[in-house]
Amino acid sequence: MLLSLVIPFFNSEKKSKRLLETLAKIKQKDVEFVLINDGSTDGTYGLLKQFKASLLESNVALIDQDNRGPGGARNSGLKIAKGKYVWFVDSDDDITLESIDIVRENANSDYDFIDFNIEKSKELLNSMDLEAGEYIVTDDSRIKLLQKFGRISSKAVSRKLLIENNIFYPEYCVYEDNPLRFIYPFFVRKFLKVQAIGYIHHLEFESITRSKPSLRTYDRLYTAIYGLEAGLKLATNSEEVRVLEEKFIEKYMIESAMKFYSIKPSRYWLTTWRVMKQYRSLEKRFNIKIKPFDAIEASRFHPKVKSYLKIQWALSHSIRTDQTRYFDNIRKKTWNL
């Protein structure tokens, strides 16, 4: 089997028809579809059963499970996938047929992953910011891969690499891709970056990660910790640790603060202070050397936004108590743990 397309579905009845139409056009026997209904409460499961019944000549595996989040669904799919490569696709997005041909053409080269460009709102996105070509990863060049790994969704990844190294997603959370950027680069030895568009990212449907803040927004905190803990166990030198720390500060503190961004005083300010207070606890726990102000200054945001973040950091010192239980209780409530 060449390629396993692993696709989680959660209440996707209305937003997944475009992708299913694309899958129906794939006739090659060396491509399988691993579809996971992750506890949907709408008509998603019925739609998937109908889709499987309509493609008797194709390789379609259908899993129905209780809701464990997109990471839990992908893990279930990965465990039964048979392809040399695995591609994790979101049900409201799409892939190109050309990309499958490219994977097939390069299958004998044993790349750890093949990375495609992304089409987003009719614009081209190269999430790795690399020129097309083959890349060999050495211990000396791993820093660059940690910095430029890009998005998981644009990559067909070696199933052997994932299974043999026990690399799975965190479950019962969203933002489940974030931790893997801390982990994958340590196992990659060779990859191919291609110029072709392989993944089409659509924005017309509401998403947890694009909608207004909710209780599940706090999952980005959990997944950032998950990634840092795993990455630090794999890091072999101080430079790798530094990059992991930079990535953690960005994912845990800066991006979270921006998710709750509010110029005028609001309840979001208190949330930001709680996050920053908890970051200070984690800073001690993981012995993070980078200073928060330096990280803010090095961020991609406008100077006015950087000033806002620095002000919030100063104000966050008004929170005196540890916030671990507060955030743990939110996650337990959100996912019924």
Brief summary:
Residues 4-124 form the Glycosyltransferase 2-like domain. InterPro entries: Glyco_trans_2-like, Nucleotide-diphossugar_trans. With 337 residues, the protein is α/β, with parallel strands linked by helices.
Q: Quick one: biggest sheet?
A: 10 strands, mixed
The third-level CATH topology of the largest domain is Spore Coat Polysaccharide Biosynthesis Protein SpsA, Chain A
- Overall shape: globular
Uncertain segments: none
CATH architecture grouping of the largest domain: Alpha-Beta Complex
CATH level 1 class label of the largest domain: Alpha Beta
As for the number of domains, it is: 2
Average pLDDT works out at 95
The number of distinct helices, counting runs of at least 4 residues, comes to 13
CATH superfamily of the largest domain: Spore Coat Polysaccharide Biosynthesis Protein SpsA, Chain A
Organism: Psychrobacter glacincola
Keywords: Glycosyltransferase, Transferase
InterPro entries: Glyco_trans_2-like, Nucleotide-diphossugar_trans
Protein name: Glycosyltransferase family 2 protein
Descriptive report:
This is Glycosyltransferase family 2 protein. Keywords: Glycosyltransferase, Transferase. InterPro entries: Glyco_trans_2-like, Nucleotide-diphossugar_trans. It comes from Psychrobacter glacincola. The chain is of the alpha/beta class and 337 residues long. Strands 1, 2, 3, 4, 5, 6, 7, 8, 9 and 10 form a 10-stranded mixed beta sheet that branches. Helix 8 runs antiparallel to helix 9, helix 9 runs antiparallel to helix 10 and helix 11 runs antiparallel to helix 12. The protein is globular.
